[in-house]
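task queued by scheduler; priority normal; single chain, no ligands, no partner chains; default sampling; output format set to C-alpha cells
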Amino acid sequence: MKRAAIFYCLIGIAIAAIAIGAAFYLDDTVWHFIMQHQNRAVRSFMHNVSRFGDWPSHVALGLLLLGIAWWRGSKKWTRIFLSMLLAMAIAGIAGQVIKRTFPRARPSVKSELRWGGPRFSTKYHSFPSGHVAASMAFFGVLMFARRRIGLTCLPIPILIGFSRMYIGAHYLSDVVCAAALGILCALVVTHFFLRKSSNRQSSTSTRAT
C-alpha cells in the first residue's frame, strides 16, 4: 500500500509539473486568443460567474450543508463539509501569502514588468488565482471523500477559472497553479483530518464490539 501511494504521488507530481510548465509557456498565447474572442454577453456571464464564484459563496454553501448534515445527525457528512471549509481556508491563506511574496501584474494591468510591483495592491495579485484555489480545495475534498459526487462538481472550479481568465484577472498559469494549490490543500486535509478521524472512529467501534 505504501509503495502504491508513493507511486501515485510521484505520478501526480509529474502531471502537475508538466501542466504548470505548459501553462506558463502558453500564457501569452491563451491570453491573446481570449482577448480576440471577446463577446459582450459572454463577458457579462463570466463576470457573474467570477462574482458568485468567490470564497463567500463557498463559505455560505459549506455552512448551509454543514448545518443540514448536523441537523440530520450525519457525522460522516458533517466531517466532510467541515473538511471542505477547512481546506478552502488553508488554500485562501496560502494563496494570499504567495500573492504578497510573488506579486504579479494582472493581464488587464498595463505594465512592462510581468513580475514584481506593489505587494499590497490587488492589481498585482494575479498569481495565483484565489477564486480557483478556494473552489478547487473546497470541491477537491468532496472529490477525494465521495468521488462520483466530487467529479460532478468539478466543472464549477473549472468554469470559475475560465471566467477569471476571460475577464482579464488572471493568466492561464495563475489558474493552473491555483488549482494545484487547491488540490494539495484538499489532499492534506483529507489525509490528516478526514481519514484519520474516520479511522479512529472505526477502531473505537471495533473495540466496543
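post-processing summary
- Residues 2-204 form one domain.
- The chain has one domain: 2-204.
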